[in-house]
Every structure is written in structure tokens, then in C-alpha cells.
Recover the amino acids of this structure.
């Protein structure tokens, strides 16, 4: 009898342990809900998203469900997204950098072709043709860009430059090097502020734009320009030289820490995308100047946040309405006024925006557009990661040949 | 027949849930990982091409910049410093406490407390303490050295390209030395008093007592401590992520797996994971075999 009872207890115990495993998995929402997956959880990004949601509520009959995953500058979100896509549990739409960063989703058939909707919503006319070319894979567009950021902007601390006697804005790389020497002579030991891996990659890209021109630069990522050409070698040498003017502990700095060097007057120059001024202003620093990176001319190096329609979304009609809002003039204005970027549409009303954004809108309309690798417009996610690793190694050992070889390999990642 | 089932049936039924869960979620998934590591699945797209050991060979011979070997070298430096540091400090503390100090309980608690923290929490603090700025820009420990006129002690910590990983081991040593101390202290307490008395009667000096009588008895404890700390070191991830973030300078295999996985290179990530598993197994399996043997003997 005792045996029997023990067996019964064992059986119950076994069932009790198994049951939590059996009843996992949450139900997906009703048809009226659109789950928007982003990594915009705080600051200007969250404010921008809120603006977009307000426009969405006006234009659509669906309700917005915030699927934001915070932390790690998007790396946490990407990890969660990857596993959800794997399990076939795609959100209704998700955020991704526009351009080559989407290539892995396209190759895996995880997102849908939006070309027909581009026609229907008039986006083909509203967006610049160069941008659409860049977003297209085999003539099809897979995402709707919400904004444009410029990445090749050189920010300056006006009073530091004035104190050292640098009056003219540097227009060429040679000018910049001369200005850096002047600052160094004035006692500023690291006049060019920089942060870790990806922000160094941005500097390398800006130097390469100066040395190769916009077309040659874009070719680096499409395979049209040879990474082992003497012009590229020259560009890498210039980059190495510029790096010698930067703070030695750059690998410990996030971009905001590097920006603080500029604010504190410990550096005179800082290359960063145009999300920097909102951080400057939030910290009470307004004495900054800006120009395109010396030697870049009117080249506008862009990156964009965009939204997609995943295969197997629960509510594709709701997603389409979200995408329509994202692409609409009202949606882009609501989003960009708060986030500090500019609309991807060329019909934006400049007067509605603050001073820096007005100049950026002008430059976006008139400049030559080239994509950014560091932010996934020109490079697949694998290529960005490999490039960051190569840049990080170069930062510690200054091995030019190794950098050239590794960058060449990185540019080929994901292309086969 | 029925009686025999009755003998082992309930036992089997009792362990069957955990057996099932372990079978599926540990061994099943290890098998799955090995399968993926031998495929050519380098993107998010499904792909079942079989490449045998190709991914492993690539890691050792064909990785850009020798990245995988670099991460192994980082792990080696980290592990050696981490093991030496915890073992020496742990033994020293245990020795001091064992000699009999006042408020032993207090010291024991103080040394053991860091272990209660997660590596993420202490990593955030150590990130600040090990600020690499020097001179006027110094922060954290470097600033303290500067204020104490010990400026020569200022150093770049984990940003040193050659030996940075040794600095990375400092927080780990701080955190686990107390644990090793507790193990050794238990070891000391487990040695019968008769042995000490016998040694004293035979006229052994204190040095001889420790060298010939007490330390040899601590060997099993030292081995356990080495295994426990060693396998933690092999898998180190959270501490490095919170001190430096994922970057070339401090990359170890576990961080490399994370980086590759983020770019959907499943085959490569699996191959690194399997190598990591083998590294840990090399440490643990002989220990398990030995433990099983001694248990069977007793």
C-alpha cells in the first residue's frame, strides 16, 4: 500500500513539474491592434515615436501597441526580434535602419515587398530618387523611411577655436590638419574628440569620402571600388593621422562621453551624426558650430530609420496604415520635429524646423547622397559588425595593412 | 516482474520530469547546436548545406584578423590571472582566519559579501573605478592614486592592448576570492585536531605543520575551487559586457558568440559555442570522473 501511495505522489509530482512548460505562449492581440516594435524607449527617440503615434491615431482606426525593447542601442531589440521572427511570431511592424541592414530579412523572406504601396501613396514622387534606388533590392522597395539623419557633420566648439586663433572653417583635410596642429600648439592635447568603434568607423568613412569622392566611396560597399587601390591606402593613412589627434582612451567612450569633451572645451572638433545637437542642447551647450566634414563638399551621408511589413504579421491592414502614416508629410513632421532629424520627403516645410534642421533640409535637397556603412544604410548587419571589429583592432595596434585587409573582407560580408 | 517494476518504478517516475527536461533542453539542444555548427547557415535564411568541420577550421585559420585566436588569447590571460588571484587571495584569507582572529565571523562575511552581487552590478561600478584617464583626466582608481601621490600606479587598465585582460580579471578576483576562502576555510576545519596534535608531539615546526600535514589535505578542496572558478572564467560574458561592452580589445569567445548571433551567422556562432563547451568539458569531465570514482570507493 505504501508503495502505491509513493507511486501516486511521484506521478503527481511529475505532472506538476511538466504543467508550466505546457501552458506557455501568450495569445496575440485583437485585429484592431498594431504592434510596433522599436528600440525607441526614451529621450528624443521616445518623443518622436509619441509624435508619430499621435499622427497615427488621427489617420487610422487602429490602436497602437508599443512593443519597444530598451537598451544596448538597439542590440537587445535586434536579439529579441531575431528570435521572434524565427518562431514565426513577427510583430506587426518593426524598426530597422533603411538600406543594406535589411538585406538579411529580405534574403530570408521575412519582410514583404512594398513597391505597389509606394505607388499608391505617392512615395515614389515624394522621396528623392537616389534614396529609393538605395533602398531597392532588385527593383523592389521593402521599407518606408521615417526620417533622415546626416552622419558626416563636423561639430566645433566655437570659443575653443577662437581662443586658439582658428578663424576660418576648415574646407579641406589639409585645413583640418592645420587647425588641429594649431589647437595642439595652444595646449589642447586631443583636439579631435572621438568615441569607440562605430564612431571611429564614421570618421574613417568621412575621410574616405574626401579622398575618393562620393561615387568612389559608395563603390566601396557595392564592390565597384577596390579596397586595395592606392587612393584607399591614402585615405587610410589620412585616417591614421587624424586618429593621432584624438583622445587616447577613445575605446572607453560612448559618443555622448566624446561629445562632452567638446562641451568641456577639451576638444575643438567632433565628428558625429546630427543627433548630436539635441544632446548638446539638453546639457546646456549652445556654443557649437557645424559644417560638413572637410573635403566632403556637398556630399550628404545619410542614414534612416524605417518600418517594414513582416511576413505573417497578424494585422497587415493595420500595418499598412501605420506605414502610410510614417510616409505621410504629417507623420514625418510630427516624428522629426521631436527626434531632431529631417523628413525623408522632399516636400518638407523648412520654416517649421529649428536652424540646424533647416540647413540639413536644404543640403538633403541639393547635395549628393551617399549611404552610411556604420549605420547600416550601405552595409549589412554582418558587415557593420566586422567593420567595427577591424576598426577596434586598428585603434589599439595602428596596423594599416591589417585594417585595409579586414575592411575589404568586411565590405564583402553578406554578399557572397 | 511486477515486483521488479515496483522496486525501480517510483524512483524512475520521480526523476522522469527532470530527466525529460534535461534531455530535451540540455542534451537535445547541444545536439542541435552541433548540427547547426556543421551547416552553412550564415544568414537568417534557412539553409541545411553540410560543411562538416569547415566552420571550425575557418575559425582557426581563416578568421579575419585572427579574431577567434585573439579572443582565445584574451580568455587565456583572463583565466590565468583570475585563477591565480582567487586561489592566492582565498588561501591567504583562509589561512589568516584559521590562525584565529577576533571577530572571525565578521571578516568571513565581509570577504564573502561581494559574491552576492551579480557581475553586471559590480561591472558597472568597476567600469568607473577602472577609468583609463590619467593625469588631469583621471577618474576612479587612477584619481585616487593621483591624490595619494602614487601617480606611477596609474595605468590604462583594460584598454592596454597587450595585458588589458589581466585588469579585466581584477573585478572577478574581488568578487570570488571570498568564495574560495570559504572553501579553504571549510577544508581547514575538516582536518581532525588529532593530526595537528600528533605533529606537535613529533616536534614539527609551524611551517612543517602546514607544509607536510595541513596543505596536502587541502588538495581536494583546491581542485574543487579550481574547477568552479575555472569554468566560470571560461564562460565569462556579463562582467566584460558591463565593463567594456563588446569590442575588439576585450573580446572573449562568449562575447564573440553574442556578436555573431546578432548578425544571424548561426553556423559560426554555434561552432564557437561548441568549442567553448569543449573547453569547459576539458576542465570538468576529469573532475566528475574522479569524484565518481572516490564515491564508489567509499
Amino acid at each position: 500500500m505504501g508503495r502505491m501511495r509513493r507511486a501516486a505522489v511521484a506521478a503527481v509530482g511529475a505532472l506538476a513539474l511538466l504543467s508550466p512548460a505546457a501552458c506557455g505562449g501568450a495569445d496575440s492581440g485583437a485585429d484592431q491592434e498594431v504592434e510596433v516594435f522599436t528600440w525607441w524607449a526614451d529621450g528624443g527617440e521616445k518623443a518622436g515615436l509619441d509624435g508619430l503615434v499621435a499622427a497615427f491615431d488621427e489617420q487610422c482606426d487602429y490602436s497602437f501597441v508599443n512593443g519597444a525593447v530598451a537598451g544596448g542601442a538597439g542590440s537587445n531589440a535586434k536579439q529579441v526580434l531575431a528570435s521572434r521572427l524565427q518562431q514565426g511570431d513577427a510583430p506587426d511592424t518593426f524598426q530597422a535602419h533603411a538600406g543594406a541592414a535589411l538585406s538579411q530579412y529580405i534574403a530570408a523572406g521575412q519582410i514583404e515587398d512594398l513597391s505597389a504601396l509606394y505607388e499608391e501613396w505617392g512615395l515614389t514622387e515624394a522621396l528623392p530618387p537616389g534614396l529609393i534606388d538605395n533602398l531597392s533590392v532588385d527593383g523592389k522597395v521593402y521599407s518606408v523611411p521615417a526620417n533622415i539623419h546626416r552622419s558626416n557633420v563636423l561639430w566645433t566648439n566655437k570659443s575653443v577655436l577662437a581662443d586658439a586663433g582658428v578663424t576660418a572653417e576648415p574646407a579641406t583635410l589639409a585645413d583640418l590638419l592645420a587647425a588641429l596642429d594649431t589647437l595642439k600648439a595652444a595646449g589642447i592635447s586631443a583636439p579631435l574628440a572621438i568615441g569607440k568603434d562605430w564612431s571611429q568607423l564614421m570618421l574613417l568613412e568621412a575621410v574616405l569620402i574626401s579622398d575618393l569622392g562620393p561615387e568612389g566611396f559608395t563603390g566601396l560597399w557595392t564592390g565597384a571600388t577596390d579596397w586595395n587601390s592606392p587612393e584607399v591606402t591614402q585615405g587610410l593613412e589620412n585616417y591614421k593621422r587624424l586618429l593621432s589627434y584624438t583622445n587616447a582612451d577613445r575605446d572607453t567612450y560612448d559618443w555622448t562621453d566624446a561629445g562632452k569633451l567638446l562641451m568641456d572645451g577639451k576638444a575643438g572638433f567632433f565628428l558625429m551624426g546630427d543627433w548630436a545637437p539635441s544632446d548638446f542642447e539638453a546639457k546646456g551647450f549652445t556654443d557649437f558650430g557645424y559644417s560638413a566634414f572637410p573635403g566632403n563638399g556637398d556630399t550628404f551621408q545619410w542614414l534612416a530609420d524605417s518600418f517594414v511589413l513582416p511576413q505573417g504579421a497578424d494585422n497587415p491592414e493595420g500595418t499598412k496604415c501605420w506605414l502610410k502614416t510614417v510616409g505621410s508629410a504629417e507623420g514625418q513632421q510630427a516624428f522629426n520635429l521631436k527626434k531632431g532629424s529631417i523628413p525623408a520627403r522632399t516636400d518638407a516645410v523648412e520654416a517649421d524646423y529649428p536652424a540646424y534642421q533647416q540647413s540639413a533640409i536644404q543640403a538633403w535637397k541639393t547635395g549628393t547622397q551617399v549611404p552610411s556603412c556604420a549605420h547600416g544604410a550601405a552595409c549589412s548587419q554582418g558587415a557593420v559588425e566586422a567593420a567595427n571589429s577591424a576598426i577596434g583592432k586598428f585603434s589599439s595596434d595602428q596596423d594599416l595593412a591589417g585594417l585595409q585587409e579586414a575592411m575589404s573582407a568586411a565590405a564583402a560580408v553578406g554578399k557572397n | 516482474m511486477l515486483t521488479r517494476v515496483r522496486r525501480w518504478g517510483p524512483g524512475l517516475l520521480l526523476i522522469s520530469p527532470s530527466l525529460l527536461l534535461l534531455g530535451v533542453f540540455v542534451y537535445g539542444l547541444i545536439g542541435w547546436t552541433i548540427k547547426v555548427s556543421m551547416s552553412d547557415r550564415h544568414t537568417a535564411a534557412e539553409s541545411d548545406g553540410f560543411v562538416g568541420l569547415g566552420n571550425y577550421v575557418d575559425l582557426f585559420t581563416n578568421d579575419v584578423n585572427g579574431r577567434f585566436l585573439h579572443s582565445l588569447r584574451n580568455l587565456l590571460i583572463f583565466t590565468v590571472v583570475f585563477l591565480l588571484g582567487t586561489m592566492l587571495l582565498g588561501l591567504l584569507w583562509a589561512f589568516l582566519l584559521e590562525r584565529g582572529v577576533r571577530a572571525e565571523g565578521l571578516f568571513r562575511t565581509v570577504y564573502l559579501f561581494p559574491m552576492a552581487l551579480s557581475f553586471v552590478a559590480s561591472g558597472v561600478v568597476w567600469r568607473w573605478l577602472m577609468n583609463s584617464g590619467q593625469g588631469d583626466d583621471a577618474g576612479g582608481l587612477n584619481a585616487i592614486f593621483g591624490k595619494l601621490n602614487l601617480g606611477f600606479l596609474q595605468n590604462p587598465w583594460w584598454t592596454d592592448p597587450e595585458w588589458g585582460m589581466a585588469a579585466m580579471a581584477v573585478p572577478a578576483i574581488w568578487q570570488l576570492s571570498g568564495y574560495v576562502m570559504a572553501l579553504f576555510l571549510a577544508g581547514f576545519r575538516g582536518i581532525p585536531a588529532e593530526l595537528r596534535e600528533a605533529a606537535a608531539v613529533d616536534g614539527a615546526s609551524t611551517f612543517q605543520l602546514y607544509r607536510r600535514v595541513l596543505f596536502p589535505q587541502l588538495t581536494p578542496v583546491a581542485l574543487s575551487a579550481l574547477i568552479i572558478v575555472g569554468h566560470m572564467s571560461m564562460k565569462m560574458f556579463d562582467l566584460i559586457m558591463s565593463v567594456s561592452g563588446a569590442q575588439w580589445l576585450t573580446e572573449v569567445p562568449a562575447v564573440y558568440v553574442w556578436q555573431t548571433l546578432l548578425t544571424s551567422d548561426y553556423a559560426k556562432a554555434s561552432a564557437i559555442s561548441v568549442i567553448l563547451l569543449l573547453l569547459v568539458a576539458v576542465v570538468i569531465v576529469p573532475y566528475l570522473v574522479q569524484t565518481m570514482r572516490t564515491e564508489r570507493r567509499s
Chain B has a mean pLDDT of 89. Residues 114 and 175 of chain B are 5 Å apart (CA to CA).
